[in-house]
Design brief:
The protein has one domain. It has two helices and no strands. The chain is elongated, with a radius of gyration of 18 Å.
């Protein structure tokens, strides 16, 4: 990113670079929390009720990625 700061860069100043880094870090934390909450609940419930198979794990990954993509779209629409 530092190569993109300056008069001809995407970010005009060091302050803009710092703001970008802060926004990116917040986005990553929020996205990770969504996945963490969904994962923990799914794992506990599935392991207790039926056990976890390879097919279960594949379905989980599919749904988890859809949830994350949906959240990213929602964030983009609000930006």
């Amino acid at each position: 990113m530092p190569k993109h700061v300056g008069p001809n860069g995407a970010l005009a100043t060091i302050d803009e670079h710092a703001s970008f880094n802060e926004a990116l870090a917040l986005h990553c934390r929020e996205s990770a929390e969504i996945v963490r909450e969904f994962s923990g609940g799914w794992y506990s419930k599935t392991a207790h009720q039926t056990g976890i198979t390879e097919d279960d794990a594949g379905r989980f990954a599919f749904v988890a990625l859809k949830k994350l993509a949906s959240e990213l779209k929602r964030e983009r629409a609000g930006a």
